[in-house]
Amino acid sequence: MSTATVVDPTERARELLGVSRLTNRALTGWLHGLPGVDQVGCEARAAALGTRSIKTTSKAWAIDTAISMIDLTTLEGADTRGKVRGLAAKARVPDPSDMTTPHPAAVCVYGDMVATAKEALGASGIKVAAVATAFPSGRASLPVKLADVADAVDAGADEIDMVIDRGAFLAGDYLTVFSQIAAVKAACGGARLKVILETGELVTYDNVRRASWLSMLAGGDFIKTSTGKISPAATLPVTLVMLEAVRDWRESTGEQVGVKPAGGIRTSKDAIKFLVAVNEVAGEEWLDNHWFRFGASSLLNDLILQRQRMRTGAYSGGDYVADDSPSLY
Amino acid sequence: MTPFEYAPAPESRAVVDIASSYGLYIGGKFVEATGGAPFKTVNPATEEVLAEVSEASADDVDAAVNAARTAYTRVWSRMSGADRGKYLFRIARILQERAREFAVLETLDNGKPIKEARDVDLPLAAAHFFYHAGWADKLDHASLGPNPRPLGVVGQIVPWNFPLLMLAWKIAPALACGNTVVLKPAETTPLTALLFASVCEQAELPPGVVNIVTGAGATGQAIVDHPGIDKLAFTGSTAVGKMIARSIAGTRKKATLELGGKAANIIFDDAPIDQAVEGIVNGIFFNQGHVCCAGSRILVQESIADELDSRLKRRLATLRVGDPMDKNTDVGAINSRKQLDRIEEMVAVGEAEGAQRWDSGCELPTNGFWFRPTVFSGVSQTHRIAQEEIFGPVVSVLTFRTPAEAVAKANNTPYGLSAGVWTEKGSRILWMADQLRAGVVWANTFNKFDPTSPFGGYKESGYGREGGRHGLEAYVTTGGPTRAGQRSGATEGSAK
To answer: Which of A131, A230, B71, B186 lies 20 to 30 Å from B326 when distance is taken between CA atoms?
Structure first.
């Protein structure tokens, strides 16, 4: 279960690709040699997984597991210390009416809110994740991105959610994407690195597959779909392609990488579909919040609502679930 | 035990009433059979007897044909196409409204997973009626030839693998073109056809337009031999298809035959591999492999054979085999003891021939008829399991080196119903489709059906097409003078 030991990603990439020098040409050949993804077939498979009927005991298990996998997120320009403290309180006690409710895996904030989140979460065991590298666009120079990462790590972030340079990726400059991920990974120190592909901007499933493999090659501990700022964000087919990638990566390297769909998952029903996909595509080893996360905010309360419904047999309604992230407008 | 164990999610069978016994649906009402020996239809997942069904004798078939003839001459052939279309639209809508009831009954009688009955059989059956309802008043514009007119009384014999869907494939075009029908469902799966009689009543279809007679081979033979039948439409085994062709040789009867298959599902080294694995699963484990166009031979390019083998087996280990009524079941029960015996016999043959047998080892229920999804690797063209239709969840894996070799092996079969091609290269798809002697070629997909798309075979897979504009051709005659009341449904006074 340990994360990968510190290795030089370039050296490891050379070994995996079987090349003496890691060039953009070598990376291109390797990435373009991955099997293609047929869009229609991929979406049909995702839809089929979505028809699984998860009831009673398995539904109860799935709801609790989904709650424990949430990165409870606030990423707004309007974020304040008060908002972040509220979110942290929500993470510590998701449902004051039922203290057996599991808590989310992490709270995810901008870098300048890490210290506040850290302090508010105390010794709860809930992690603090910080978005960095000029999130969400990633349009800044590498030194700025690395300073962003160092700042969050210094403030105590346990996890860093970086964005890849989609412009470089779409221009075929895979080496730049690789180098930036590797540099951010080095700057993370002990923090786990989630690499955001922003699949809504990569558009094709072939690109999602290539970006997934490139991110894993460069040392990402997690591959994450989206920033939440671009639509579409975490669709089930995109997540399916990423789950196939981590499954195949482990088969070829022995290393396990996590997956985090983020953005657009709002209902328990949706979350359970993702868990079914994890179970049947990547496998049960990923059914743990060390290896699978949901980037979400409103999802938590829907899961709590369903959890209450299963306990009491009746829907309580929104006023019976504490909400620390209501809309400002 | 995995952490995420899916709890049972059974579909309720309370939505359907099954009578303890059924008569024959002739002339718009259920009548007692004369002379035949009643037989029982069982749930193949439990071996529970569901109902007792009548065996139609030659006299009963005669009564059904007479009822169909009367309805043809007095009502149906004289009705405008627009009005026929209204009845078909009505049937389509009723099937949609009662979809759950039909899906549950289909699963109980056939053994297929409820998820397939619900998501494939019923939506497609309704779609066939909708599609053909639209054609009923447009036959003059379907490029069928001048003055398209109905043939008369059509005898239709359908198999047990998609009982209601095959009924829809047969009845919808026949009625759209102005014919009346005598239909015989398979002896192991008669119940949805008998329930369809109630749809005809609900739609107020004129009596005798649709007649349903139950029975086995003898009843089928009586339909084939009846002099009042103008056309036969049969879906089933090649052996029976040949018997029918022999029986009607020298008569005026026309026939369309949709028979067996031994489809090649061809996987090139540049295939979208994850989707190809799904395509293989869909191709051969859909409906327990009881599919005439099943992709029962995988032809994989030798350079990726090992990789495909491990990916396929990993996937098959996740297939959920068991109670067909559970909404999470992927593979249901084998339809009958007889079919299970046939599958077991062929698998023993495959082992004796030296192919390597693999199955997932999943647990099977104790009652009922079951067979684990099975893969044979190291198969050669000369093996019987590469030549003969098994009609079960058993796939044979062969390899090839070049596109030409793939084509040669794919075509090296007496059958020619369907084929699949998996490659990211568009030009190769087109070239392969041109070379393959199969009625349907799927590219980067498999077992996709649509009423707008004609379906049918080459060689010993039969002749004639079902579905699409082409499917109408089997149900009309053209040329000759236009006669009032026999018009296919063009508005009166249209230019001729």
So the answer is: B186
Tell whether A297 is covered by a domain.
yes
CB pair distance less than 8 Å for A51 and B9:
no
Contact B273 A35 (CB under 8 A): yes
Range of the domain at A74: 40-312
- Is the separation of the CB atoms in B155 and B232 below 8 Å? yes
- What band does A257 get if pLDDT is binned at 50, 70 and 90? very high
pLDDT, position B257: 97
Range list for CATH 3.40.309.10 in chain B: 264-443
Distance from CA of A69 to the nearest CA of B (A): 15
B2, pLDDT greater than 80: no
Architecture of domain B21-259+457-477: 3-Layer(aba) Sandwich (3.40)
Fold of the domain spanning B264-443: Aldehyde Dehydrogenase; Chain A, domain 2 (3.40.309)
Does any CB of chain A come closer than 8 Å to the CB of residue B444? yes
Q: Testing the interface with B: which of A32, A38, A287 to mutate, by most B Cβ within 10 A?
A: A38
Q: For chain A, what is the domain count? A: 1
pLDDT in tens, B175-228: 999 999 999 999 999 999 999 999 999 999 999 999 999 999 999 999 999 999
Residues of B in contact with A59 (CB under 8 A): 7
**B14-71 residue pLDDT tens:** 999 999 999 999 999 999 999 899 999 999 999 999 999 999 999 999 999 999 999 9
Is there a catalytic annotation at residue B258? yes
A97 within a domain of the structure (yes/no): yes
| Residue B282 · residue B264 · CB < 8 Å | no
